[in-house]
Amino acid sequence: MKKKLEALIQQAVISLKKEGVIADDIGAAITLERTRDAQHGDFATNLAMMLAKPAKMNPRQLAEKLVAALPKDSAVTKVEVAGPGFINFFIDSRSQYDIVKKVHELGSDFGLSQIGVGKKVQVEFVSANPTGPLHVGHGRGAAYGSAVAGLLEAVGFTVHREYYVNDAGRQMDILATSIWLRYLEECGEPVRFPDNGYRGGYVGDIARDIYKNAKDEYRCPIGLVLEDIPKDEAHGGDKEAHIDALIARAKSLLGTMHYRDIFQAGLTNILDDIKNDLQEFGVEYQEWFSEQHLMDDGSVDLALNRLQASGHLYEKDGATWFASSQLGDEKDRVVRRENGQYTYFASDIAYHMNKLDRGFDLIIDIWGADHHGYIPRVKAAIQALGADANKLKVLLVQFATLYRGEEKVQMSTRSGDFVTLRQLRDEVGKDAARFFYVMRRSEQHMDFDLQLATSKTSENPVYYVQYAHARVCSVLRQLVEKGLPRDIVSGMNGLTQLAEEHELSLLSTLERYPEMLERAALTHEPHQLILYLRELANDFHTYYNAHQFLVDDDKLRDARLNLICAVRQVLANGLKLLNINTPESM
RNA sequence: GCGCUUGUAGCUCAGCUGGAUAGAGCAUCGGCCUUCUAAGCCGAGGGUCGCAGGUUCGAGUCCUGCCAAGCGUGCCA
């Protein structure tokens, strides 16, 4: 209907141009929107006001001329000029009934569109370091990322969901060393745990597993481990130097093979946990991409060679720098340290080169908002590799600030003091967690009160939407219990009986679903979908309280049942897209 | 200091990319169950859209300057 009206308006503009009322060269981007107030009809355009100035005409006069030039259409009952120059369209309510048939015919396909067909999009999200279990901050990225991916798929894009596994680098060494020290404790060595080590209980769990299987195989006397190690922070030293020395010591005492055993035990264990966690959260990936793999297959070298060849690298102070400041970054960045090691950024350049080489039309990275300063350098890298920086779209997710009632919860991965995603799921369930996470705009700060969210009796909006779905199911059960017949075809033929205000309102909300979905997908804003579902549920609950569905009049009953079944279908389509359950009873 | 983001009802947040009288959920107050599930519905109160200018027919939305908060500003990841 919206597209139809836009076409009509376009024709009116063309004919006015032919008459010379408006100059040919005036651009006319038609903005047609649904009215908020029923007095303003169903759709309205501000076109006359937009064109008034270039056409040198009074907006209301121009609006009158536009209306006069508008081709007749049976679906449009009235067109009027209002206010400062709005053109309001009133739609024949009979044409609105078609939506019920359409939903019924298309079923779970209703709302899908084709605008993304033929385009490949990569969505990389979560990508938390495998140094510990996912916490509630990652949960938001997971819910948001999978919702964005789902939306893009719904409008036709081919979506590749990917998790970048940071399985190389210093953090992983710190983890491995932490595990080894816990293991030594298990062996009975009097270990003093480093301030900068990973203190979470899972580290000890992994260490105990290793001890159970290997006994003393990896054991070294603690005296040897600590010999000549610089002081830790608690003793007036530098915690970074302390842990780095411990890592080096672990490697030298254990030897390459044994060190790798510990390292792998940590990586495998934690990564499996993350995979399992996300799966239970309803998040699926097409690919888990290993950073180490980029190192091993020479991609990092290749990427740097390409930057070297195009003149974007230089040497200074013994390190290799990327001249990103020439491509919009604040300053140049080191890619290879003085000690010969690549920086994290170097492998990230290689990773994005890899993404580009895979031929995606659009690359979406979803990051925590604390990484926003990183965007210019990655975009610079993409440009330096000869690609269009606009191919990369970085979406930021603000971390949720956690509260327990009034008290703010401090979180630190290192200290192990954090609420895990799994804990959250156990307490509030997958559905509530997903819904809650995606309810707000992603770049918006979000206060997450655990007491409220973990309270079973809390007024959680997800129940509100699910309840509407369950209620329709319940009505259909009642129909059977009362032994009443249902004739879908007759109901479709009798849709025009649905003239109550609540019914017309539902029809128009249903019709909005596809365009809402398209917008939510293209703007990467799943909260639009949540908002819509709450609105649809609200319309339904209001209708439910105002009118009886299982009335004696067969025709009317059939029509109403068809309407509420369409509501149920759309609720289900939206909830499934968000991977939230659609209970038949509650 | 500089950069990015945010500032809307007591609280948590929407606001369709510049439109008509700024909305919803909690919370507060008042109503609705012998009738398809009250996890629901109806109603009321509650606002200097951080502040001050500017752009124009029209600004919560755009531009500038302040104020406040968060994050970033490593040869960390």
UniProtKB/TrEMBL annotation:
Pfam families named among the record's database cross-references: Arg_tRNA_synt_N, DALR_1, tRNA-synt_1d
Swiss-Prot/TrEMBL catalytic activity: tRNA(Arg) + L-arginine + ATP = L-arginyl-tRNA(Arg) + AMP + diphosphate
PROSITE patterns in the cross-refs: AA_TRNA_LIGASE_I
Domain Arginyl tRNA synthetase N-terminal span(s) in chain numbering: 3-91
Residue span, DALR anticodon binding domain: 465-586
Keywords per UniProt: Aminoacyl-tRNA synthetase, ATP-binding, Cytoplasm, Ligase, Nucleotide-binding, Protein biosynthesis
Annotated motif 'HIGH' region, positions: 128-138
Entry-linked InterPro entries: aa-tRNA-synth_I_CS, Arg-tRNA-ligase, Arg-tRNA-synth_N, Arg-tRNA-synth_N_sf, ArgRS_core, DALR_anticod-bd, Rossmann-like_a/b/a_fold, tRNAsynth_Ia_anticodon-bd
A single GO cellular-component term on record: cytoplasm
GO biological process: arginyl-tRNA aminoacylation
GO molecular function per UniProt: arginine-tRNA ligase activity; ATP binding
Enzyme Commission number(s): 6.1.1.19
Main localisation: cytoplasm
Cellular location(s): Cytoplasm
Subunit-level organization: Monomer.
Family: Belongs to the class-I aminoacyl-tRNA synthetase family.
Alphabetized HAMAP family for the sequence: Arg_tRNA_synth
Protein name: Arginine--tRNA ligase
